[in-house]
Amino acid sequence: MTEPSSAAASRNSPARNRQILIVYTIAIFVSALLLFSVQPLFTKMVLPRLGGSPAVWSVAMVFFQSLLLAGYAYAHGLSRFADRRVPVVVHLLLLVCALLTLPLAIATGWGTPPSSGYELWLLGLFAVSIGLPFFALAANNPLLQAWFVRTGHPDGRDPYFLYAASNIGSFLALLSYPVLLEPLLTLRLQNLVWTAGYGVLILLIAGCGVLLLRAPATAAAELIADGTDAPSPSWLTVGRWVFLAAVPSGLLIAVTAHISTDVAAAPLLWVLPLSLYLLTWVLVFQSRPLLPHRWMLALQPVAIAVIIVLLAYSASEHNLLLTLGGHLVCFFIIAMACHGELARTRPPARYLTGFYVALSFGGMVGGLFAGLLAPYTFSWIAEYPILLALAVLCRPQMPERVPQWSLRIWLLIAALAVVLITSAFTTGKLHDWFMTNRVLVIGDVAAFAAVIALVLRAGPAKLLATVALALLLIRLYPADDGRVETVRSFFGVHKIQVTSDGRFHVLLHGTTIHGAERVMNDDGTPVTGRPEPISYYYKDGGIGQAITAIRERKGGPIRAAVIGLGSGTLTCAAAPDEHWRFFEIDQSMIDTARDPKYFRFVSTCAPDLQPVVGDARLTFAHEPDGTYDLIIVDAYSSDAIPIHLATREAMAIYRAKLAPQGAVLMHVSNRHLELASVAVGIADANGLKSWVASQDAGRDAEYIFATSVVISAREAADIGRLAGNDDWTLTAPRAGDRVWTDDYSNVLGAVWRRLRDGED
């Protein structure tokens, strides 16, 4: 093929330019749509392998960001070929090869995770399963923009508006998945639709290639020559691009971890920060930004100060919408300021692909820090305040308004640091006053940072020192009621709290209590002997009644399986000569339950306990059939549930393991999802009848809580006296409700039912 060179063909016609703009915009939009819809789609396929842990999403984000870098680097290298045919042919061949690996599936040999090193195992699983198609998709955005420049289109001088089109596609893909795709389509059908979309995209990119090859070479050369006078970006500039991309990328994962752990572990929360993150890219690369960059720079110190106050106040804050909204709005402002700086300093079109490589490298660095390094390094979500402080350095260097005050400001910051830090390690009236007024003190320091940034236009170094001091004070003057220790693993952050009166030890995941033990009597004497099950497991509650009823029905010792160890409370529900087997995925949870410093249930009632470690959906399937009189499913981590333990196929496994008159008891207490109807539906699909009980003893002060449970059995006689108990209601599946399966679940529907019906 030869490129036209006649004078008459040296320019595209207006009709051809419209055609180029339409085809390229649609191709970039569809590519982004597929790129961001495959992320929740395939992650959902992988989740059952590791207990539905939210950390799977964090590792998935690291993988996607890393492969995005590889795709951008590939696009950068391919765009350097002078012959326009080379990148078109090579990329189309890559896309076709990737199409041959579809539809998506978990690669053979990756079915069972190892006992440790989950992160590396997950990265390997993603790489061999979807690495090639995702890599090809990742390259499309910068590659197609580079092609667009070479078509000679007049807008090729500044093609960054196409990046906004790409992020609109990403934004819509992300929002449509939980709202439309997940509730309406099975996982298999989602996969097929996505594969068909991949085929359509190949045709669109082939069309882009044809338009490129038919475009006049001279017109493209003139456009590219427009930027030849601009010097190539220095290494310092590239390094700043990397930093500006890394901070919001890391903050994305950090703020998601924080709101899921310390605010509310509600389902689908990860959608909100990621949606805002993508929206910032859309807004900053508009030709006429809807939110001017100078506004975002002015608001950034205020946003940082607000987050500091929220972090200081979080332990006592009960207004979920205010707290959640505050973190998300402030994250949006900070990301807008960082990404706005990237848009402001973007290079001419000839350096476009290199610019995108720097952006993707920064995104990967931020993701690696927040998603992989931080969980191994810190026992709490320390990456959030660290990245918050680093966000200060994303501000451009500007001359200070009153430079002669510079030394005075540094002395004031140093004096504040000495007084406030020293007082934290002393006792006396000053320390007590600071503890009583901790939010006010921390808020004043944060406000001081905002004031010197906006009024005096203080440099980033002064602002960083002040913000770091405010964040340090949050740790030095903690707000927790009583002593708190944290344990962090791949599966989340667990808190072990000693109440302020010393009477209870409490296990929390996020803001949800998962167990408690009374360690001190009302008169101040230590509790001795066998610990009493409390929280959701007290003897008169739904779980306690079910255990007693099955034991009475059998007339002797029972064999029980418990999925989820928690604080180990149910080890003390076992009677002598009974065989109870526990299944737990999180080794750190096992270690916590065994340590009598935290809880005495296991050390007192089952000192030789050897739980089966691993995802119960996989490990429990290896148990012999017809074994258990009672199976208790109590594995929900905070309020983010492992869906694969509540499907028709999961219930089929439980049913197969039941003794002839056995029963399955599912603990479905949840603040954000209505799960009783889900349990009833999957039981009915397996030929089991279900009874639902929701009880509230009104004894929260004693750490005895409202409990909702569903017990399922073949016949009413199998559950003994519960069948005639008024607290237990025989419940049929709701008309029109779709049964959850390994191929279909509707978390949004469960959220809606909880909002509609309220808590039990």
From TrEMBL:
Database matches in SUPFAM superfamilies: MFS general substrate transporter, S-adenosyl-L-methionine-dependent methyltransferases
GO MF terms held by the record: methyltransferase activity
Range of residues in the leader sequence: none
TM helices/strands, residue ranges: 21-42, 54-74, 86-108, 120-139, 160-180, 192-213, 241-259, 265-285, 297-314, 320-339, 351-372, 407-427, 439-456
Keyword list, A-Z: Membrane, Methyltransferase, Polyamine biosynthesis, Transferase, Transmembrane, Transmembrane helix
Gene Ontology biological process terms, A to Z: methylation; polyamine biosynthetic process
PANTHER family: THERMOSPERMINE SYNTHASE ACAULIS5 (PTHR43317:SF1)
Record-given protein name: Class I SAM-dependent methyltransferase
Organism: Rhodopseudomonas palustris
